[in-house]
Structure formats: structure tokens, C-alpha cells
Amino acid sequence: MNWFSPGDAMIVFVPREDWDAERGEIYFPVSVIGTTVMCRVEAAAIDCEMAGGEALLAAFRAQRQDYEARIRRKLLQGQYEADRSILIRAVDLAP
Predict the structure, then answer these.
(1) How many other β-carbons are positioned within 10 Å of the β-carbon of residue 42?
(2) Are 61 and 67 in contact, with CB atoms under 8 Å apart?
(3) Rounded to two decimals, what is the model's pTM?
């Protein structure tokens, strides 16, 4: 869903993330042209051998730049979910 496609310089990643156990996702806000967009990364997309929220958060933080690059591409291409969030799924990481 194409909500809006910002210019690259208008995307600011906020260094804050949390684990949503119900959804099985890590989520964090991104500022896009002054508007907050929620970004999510499903647990299956995180390279982590340990189970649990804290282990997934640690693995996510270690790879955060890679996830930010993928999210930036989705933002620039206008690949929003129906709820206007950006979601990285395991299938997005397939070669």
C-alpha cells in the first residue's frame, strides 16, 4: 500500500525498540517527514539462535543497520502495510 514515499533525507530512525510477545515482533518508531511510522520486524526474520524477547532484542540490535536499510527501501518504495506500518518478514530476507 502506497501511503507516501519520502525522500531519503527525510527518514530518521529513532534508537528505541521493544518486543511485542503477542505479535512475535520487534517494533520501533521511525520519523518520516515529521510523522511517526511504526516499523516491525517479525521474530522469524531475526537471526537468533536463542528464544525469548531479550535474546531477540539483542540480536536485532546487533543487526539493526541491516534492518534499517531494508526498512528504508520499503519506505522509499511506499511498501506500507494496511495499518500504515512497515513490516519486515522472513520472506523479505530470502535471497
Answers:
(1) 16
(2) no
(3) 0.83
Evaluate whether residue 49 is within a structural domain: yes
Domain carrying residue 46: 8-87
19, 56 in Cβ contact below 8 A?
yes
Number of domains in the chain: 1
Reported as a single tens digit per residue, the pLDDT across 3-52 is 455 555 588 898 899 999 999 999 999 998 889 999 999 998 987 766 67
Give me 75's grid cell.
519506505
The residues, ordered by sequence, that sit 6+ positions from 90 with a Cβ below 8 Å of its Cβ are 42, 44, 45
CATH number at residue 18: 3.30.160.140
